Amino acid sequence: MRSGRRLAIDVGKVRIGIAASDIHAILASGLETVARGEDLEPSLKRILELVNEVEPIEIYVGLPVSMSGNHSASTADAIYFARQLSPLVSSEVRFIDERMTTVTATNALKLSGRDSKSGRKIIDQIAATVILEQAMEQEKTTGKQPGKAMGEIDE
């Protein structure tokens, strides 16, 4: 397992969840929920500030695909977002299949005793944490860089 912090991003239409790992890639934690508007610039600016604080070796963006593996409008949105972010950062941006992360995040929220209304502000952070945990587990299990590179993704 490579040493270095990682950052994960769960891209949503209203909010963007951010999670980060420790330097040993053992623990993933929710970092922040960034508001998203029609103009991506303010969201990207805040995410760049977080990237500069964390100094990740990689950034993982959740790729929402259907259970059958088909792309949707959300898939295209996540790819678009990653393509806007990638030239602004020195870390490689990679995609992690995020099937089931929302279900996992929702279950974690329920287990913590919060309802969906009070948990809206952190559900995206939890989803980003799940994405990051999946990426770290992939690397631990396979010994290979997790996810797919920008050039490996079809729109």
Word description of this protein:
The protein has 155 residues and is α/β, with parallel strands linked by helices. The protein has one domain (6-152): YqgF/RNase H-like domain (Nucleotidyltransferase, domain 5, 2-Layer Sandwich), CATH 3.30.420. It contains four helices and six strands. Strands 3-2-1-4-5-6 form a six-stranded mixed beta sheet, sandwiched between helices. β4, α2 and β5 (92-97) form a beta-alpha-beta unit. It is globular and about 35 Å long. The chain starts with 5 loop residues before the first strand and ends in a 6-residue tail after the last strand. The mean pLDDT is 89.
Instruction: Determine the N-to-C terminus distance.
Output: 30 Å
Task: Write the CATH fold name.
Answer: Nucleotidyltransferase, domain 5
Per CATH, the architecture is 2-Layer Sandwich
Beta-strand content: 15-25%
How would a crystallographer describe the biggest sheet? Answer: 6 strands, mixed
Rounded to an integer in angstroms, the radius of gyration calculated over CA atoms is: 14 Å
Structural class of the helix and strand makeup? Answer: alpha/beta
Spell out the CATH superfamily.
YqgF/RNase H-like domain
Count structural domains. Answer: 1
Taken from the alpha-carbon principal axes, the silhouette is: globular
Query: DSSP helix count?
Result: 4
For this structure, the quaternary state is single chain
Structure summary:
By secondary structure, the protein is of the alpha/beta class.
